[in-house]
Amino acid sequence: MRILFIGDVVGQLGLSLIQHYVPELKRQLKPQVTIVNGENIADGKGITEKLYKALLQAGTDVVTLGNHAFRKRDIMDFIDGAKKMVRPANFPAGVPGQGYTIVNVNQTKLAVLNLQGRVFLDAIDDPFTKADEVLAEIKQITPLVFVDFHGEVTSEKLALAYYLDGQVAAVIGTHTHVQTNDARILPKGTAFLTDVGMTGSYEGILGVKKEPVIHNFLTKLPARFEPIETGAGQLGACYIDIKDDTGVATKIKTIRIDKDFPLEV
Amino acid sequence: MRILFIGDVVGQLGLSLIQHYVPELKRQLKPQVTIVNGENIADGKGITEKLYKALLQAGTDVVTLGNHAFRKRDIMDFIDGAKKMVRPANFPAGVPGQGYTIVNVNQTKLAVLNLQGRVFLDAIDDPFTKADEVLAEIKQITPLVFVDFHGEVTSEKLALAYYLDGQVAAVIGTHTHVQTNDARILPKGTAFLTDVGMTGSYEGILGVKKEPVIHNFLTKLPARFEPIETGAGQLGACYIDIKDDTGVATKIKTIRIDKDFPLEV
Amino acid sequence: MRILFIGDVVGQLGLSLIQHYVPELKRQLKPQVTIVNGENIADGKGITEKLYKALLQAGTDVVTLGNHAFRKRDIMDFIDGAKKMVRPANFPAGVPGQGYTIVNVNQTKLAVLNLQGRVFLDAIDDPFTKADEVLAEIKQITPLVFVDFHGEVTSEKLALAYYLDGQVAAVIGTHTHVQTNDARILPKGTAFLTDVGMTGSYEGILGVKKEPVIHNFLTKLPARFEPIETGAGQLGACYIDIKDDTGVATKIKTIRIDKDFPLEV
Amino acid sequence: MRILFIGDVVGQLGLSLIQHYVPELKRQLKPQVTIVNGENIADGKGITEKLYKALLQAGTDVVTLGNHAFRKRDIMDFIDGAKKMVRPANFPAGVPGQGYTIVNVNQTKLAVLNLQGRVFLDAIDDPFTKADEVLAEIKQITPLVFVDFHGEVTSEKLALAYYLDGQVAAVIGTHTHVQTNDARILPKGTAFLTDVGMTGSYEGILGVKKEPVIHNFLTKLPARFEPIETGAGQLGACYIDIKDDTGVATKIKTIRIDKDFPLEV
Ligand SMILES: [Fe+2]
Ligand SMILES: [Fe+2]
Ligand SMILES: [Fe+2]
Ligand SMILES: [Fe+2]
Ligand SMILES: [Fe+2]
Ligand SMILES: [Fe+2]
Ligand SMILES: [Fe+2]
Ligand SMILES: [Fe+2]
């Protein structure tokens, strides 16, 4: 099975890039499953039902989230019905939404699990312990598991990947919005990438206008960060090939599309 | 002028990799200047005079540092005499050591400036303002400036790079120990890379043994993080070509050497 | 000279308490100068011109601020004309507003200086170095200096107080909204109190409704914190007696007014 | 039942103050139970078996801990046998030691529970959820519960106290080393105090020498913080009266002993 994973989609420009490139990437790469992190699609923070549906419409099978999952209020109105959307599984008990979902691929099933780091992020539940807990459930259903680990620091991401090495097909990081150049397969067969990068403007800072970010660093005055919605775009992604029987990865490759690196997979 | 820059050297294994690969990289790439971040060379935290000299001996022209600069006590005994070593320029006034140094390259001079971010790191002086201040000095001497910006988060690194775009040849990030895949030249000519990566063990977490890191995440008990000193290594680097007259970059390219990506520049 | 200082006024209820108790406290204590921290007066975060004037109207001589100083947009419209208002002096150069102001008291002058800590707060400029810088200016005008040090942690507040001991009449902490029980005069004559406490609801958490705060701790979902505007109130204050010639403190005493401790100075 | 609780004992000087004042405080106040926070007794960070026994010897019934609980290595050798010592109950599962202990007082039993906050402290398990879990166990044994809540910020401490209001006799904060002036009984009968303060030197900063603390703020260079072991001392404490049948508090009063406030309860 081949999985295509695309990192944090920022704003309308990010959605346009998904709509533009996903069909082309699917044509070239022929993934069985396409997963997109959508935590920044609504004005840079959060997601709405309309945008969730637009992502599915554009060819996405599963939408993952992160620390901005609950920023738009109306998520509460649709999250429990959004069967193809996952928020970090280690949010405290009682929080709406699901931490993983199952995708049917021919005769097999792929579990897509979302977890969130805690270093320099909110103190939600421990992602390591939660992974153990949730994997025990998932393994009743399927041995094939993809993990979007939404986190800030490199050490936590690699630590979780080693911790789950051999138990899941892939641990791919999101949140920093910058793709890392360390794609590899760990000793026991888990594909790993510290961060897959973002999808949105290529001209700002992490998808938002650069002037307010710089002004905030210079003055420490409150700032409003707005997605850039026009101009050059970028798309950060990777694909992973996994064995359908064991769930072990055989290949991981990053994809960077922008004006410096035009699409040529 | 071509500059070769190599990221955070961790422990003795990191030093061996420098000793092994720097001659080969110089042969192939023919850089005029070789710069190495050495903040983790002494047992993973800090630097000693002996190790500083070993880096120079191995072909390094300038050693940059970061948040671990002052972790080994004996740095106080040699830092003021270490003319080829720079610590972040935005440490408060009165702190020993220098924030930049000048390297003579034929008829030209290259300034090597070290700055440190403040997001999720110590509250030292503002790197943006300090950059303005120090560049005013440097520009009296030379228009060619290389910046090692040691920082945790992607937004701060790119913000500083845009802030200095056109004024310096390159802003290259260090500290996260994971190379990013976003090398580019910004609109006004500054080469940028969020993080160049590290040099040391390929088998642990950021150069140190993985078991204590994972144990610490699971238990929150105090842990001692030790560099891995044997086994497979990795080297994270990049090279930048700059115009000797204007100091503008014309090319930036990352280098990743490890068993998955053997040396072939 | 006697100085009355009242801590962080939260919302309309906080303002009512000021209007109610300041006249009575003045009658009983006969302070020459009354200073009030107003960073939370506008809906819990920030200040408006109308509320600034209401504080002056209620008998306040100087309004100090803190990390929420710039939260309401319209501060930009009046801050430069607000001669009796100070924001932390260690905001970066170029930020509107003033860090200290001078109050005339009979034949003498009192400087009121606002500084902000950096531990667990924004990385603005170093308050220690800034204090040196600003005091050099102030001492040209008057030896009498009152400092509102807005900070999170106890160690930073006491460290600054010791650092300034003998140079200023008082270092009084704000920001935690809980009055501490450690009022004292340091060896060289500076009065010190880690935190003076807040003025607003006695029934919530730091002046705001408790249910959203608890819900946020339990779920880590975004929450809106709103001041409680009715019901029982509390007022946190202290007064300091200083020598008009040397600016050294001779007495410091805390004032806590709430239903458990009704006003009886 | 009357409970005497004494805050963070720092170093040998802290122990001497316990040895000196506990007998006198017991004589005057006649508490049935004496509890002491000992997380800083061993050189300012952690505890050893010898010092644990010295605290018991000095008249302590239970020793509570906090974020420094595990700083001295030898705690691992005696923690599981230390029946009168508790470490924060919300350390992850599998961590040695106990989170609460039961003290027999005539015909009744008092549970002493230690919890730790997470704001600006390590991301251990959620203290709110853990409190629910542990109280369900404790309530099988006794309705009388004392909580030492070790935390940094005022909001988290008061939030937990309101959350447990009516279920426990007292929530008393530790960790900031500065006693607060907000002792009260919450609406449903739980006694609350944001922080009880510390026991150790009166002349330094939180019990340690002030010069290295100030130097660290000025330079951001690494510093070694050492307890002050001679000179003037201070003791921070409180006592709480609770009803033996319902476990509701009827009185809470702070005690501050230092040269400015000599012992006179
Ligand atoms: Fe994101
Ligand atoms: Fe995120
Ligand atoms: Fe490093
Ligand atoms: Fe570093
Ligand atoms: Fe405040
Ligand atoms: Fe504040
Ligand atoms: Fe403590
Ligand atoms: Fe503590």
From TrEMBL, chains A, B, C, D:
<feature type="binding site">
    <location>
        <position position="67"/>
    </location>
    <ligand>
        <name>Fe cation 2</name>
    </ligand>
</feature>
<feature type="binding site">
    <location>
        <position position="150"/>
    </location>
    <ligand>
        <name>Fe cation 2</name>
    </ligand>
</feature>
<dbReference type="InterPro" id="IPR005235">
    <property type="entry name" value="YmdB-like"/>
</dbReference>
<dbReference type="Pfam" id="PF13277">
    <property type="entry name" value="YmdB"/>
</dbReference>
<feature type="binding site">
    <location>
        <position position="177"/>
    </location>
    <ligand>
        <name>Fe cation 1</name>
    </ligand>
</feature>
<feature type="binding site">
    <location>
        <position position="40"/>
    </location>
    <ligand>
        <name>Fe cation 1</name>
    </ligand>
</feature>
<feature type="binding site">
    <location>
        <position position="175"/>
    </location>
    <ligand>
        <name>Fe cation 2</name>
    </ligand>
</feature>
<dbReference type="GO" id="GO:0004113">
    <property type="term" value="F:2',3'-cyclic-nucleotide 3'-phosphodiesterase activity"/>
</dbReference>
<feature type="binding site">
    <location>
        <position position="39"/>
    </location>
    <ligand>
        <name>Fe cation 1</name>
    </ligand>
</feature>
<keyword id="KW-0479">Metal-binding</keyword>
<dbReference type="GO" id="GO:0046872">
    <property type="term" value="F:metal ion binding"/>
</dbReference>
<feature type="binding site">
    <location>
        <position position="8"/>
    </location>
    <ligand>
        <name>Fe cation 1</name>
    </ligand>
</feature>
<feature type="binding site">
    <location>
        <position position="39"/>
    </location>
    <ligand>
        <name>Fe cation 2</name>
    </ligand>
</feature>
<keyword id="KW-0378">Hydrolase</keyword>
<protein>
    <submittedName>
        <fullName>Calcineurin-like phosphoesterase family protein</fullName>
    </submittedName>
</protein>
<keyword id="KW-0408">Iron</keyword>
<dbReference type="InterPro" id="IPR029052">
    <property type="entry name" value="Metallo-depent_PP-like"/>
</dbReference>
<comment type="similarity">
    <text>Belongs to the YmdB-like family.</text>
</comment>
<feature type="active site" description="Proton donor">
    <location>
        <position position="68"/>
    </location>
</feature>
